[in-house]
Design goal:
Elements lengths: L13 E5 L4 H12 L3 E6 L2 H11 L3 E5 L8 H9 L7 E4 L14 H29 L2 E6 L12 H21 L4 E8 L8 H4 L2 H9 L13 H8 L10 E4 L7
Parallel strand pairs: 1-2, 1-4, 2-3, 4-5, 5-6, 6-7
Length: 253
């Protein structure tokens, strides 16, 4: 039997995390580095990325880039691979929620949401999986949402993108798992991040969301650590095409 702790050891692995300048993306970078991985953090904000790299130390590098800009995919692939080699682990945490009512959504905002939340995870994965395939090992972790299966007010574009993430995850698994590359998604409940700042700034609304969970509270950043590490490590070798809801039981009720 394998040493249980070794199942979660990422020593010798390299992880790329998008949306790493804040929130769950930043947390993912810190957690995977603590588990032994070298990490390459991607986001648009150079200053925030530099702060993250300084916190992690020599096992971290960063690239300031817009992952939704498909015209730079090849260059971005090369930038990601330059510090430590092509990544073994790819975590897609970058996202946007414009919170527009259905009648107010513009074509521009719709495309912006779908480009970042749905298209970018696919095309960046497509660019980076050939190296994983050569090594016979890879982990892709997408970020789903409560809105992958639930409809929220002001969430039609975001919900469409996150519903797409559920199917994208299954399709990635079908396409690449035979080559040792698993694809799964984490579906966070309500966590305090920049994306949910408007939710948590309303104490009554935050309390109402907490009451809708089975556990009785909203998420804390550390609640993502175990599920993420599981899906990025050898511990999940026979798990693929799944959406793991980390929501305190919100979707169970």
């Amino acid at each position: 039997m394998a040493n249980p702790s070794a199942l979660f050891d990422l020593t010798g692995r390299t992880a790329c995390i998008t949306g790493a300048s804040s929130g769950l993306g930043r947390r993912a970078a810190v957690v995977l580095a603590a588990a032994g991985a070298k990490v390459v953090a991607i986001a648009r904000r150079e200053e925030a990325l530099a702060s993250l790299s300084a916190e992690i130390g020599s096992s971290a590098a960063h690239v300031a880039a817009d992952v939704a800009d498909n015209s730079r995919l090849e260059a971005l692939r090369d930038q990601i691979s330059a510090p430590f080699g092509p990544p073994d682990i790819l975590v897609h945490a970058a996202g946007i929620n414009t919170r527009q009512a259905a009648d107010d959504v513009t074509i521009g905002e719709w495309n912006k949401t779908l480009d970042l939340n749905l298209s970018a995870p696919f095309f960046l994965s497509q660019a980076l999986t050939p190296a994983m395939r050569e090594r016979g090992w890879g982990r892709i972790v997408n970020f789903a949402s409560l809105q992958t299966t639930r409809a929220f007010p002001g969430g039609i574009a975001y919900g469409a993108s996150k519903g797409g993430i559920g199917q994208l995850t299954r399709a990635m698994a079908e396409a690449w798992s035979r080559f040792g590359i698993t694809a799964n998604a984490i579906g966070p409940g309500f966590f305090p991040t920049e994306l949910t700042e408007t939710v948590f700034s309303d104490e009554e609304r935050a309390a109402r969301n907490a009451a809708q969970t089975c556990i009785g509270r909203n998420g804390r950043l550390e609640d993502i650590d175990g599920p993420l590490l599981f899906l990025c490590s050898e511990a999940s070798a026979y798990v693929t095409g799944q959406v793991l809801m980390v929501d305190g039981g919100f979707t169970a009720k």
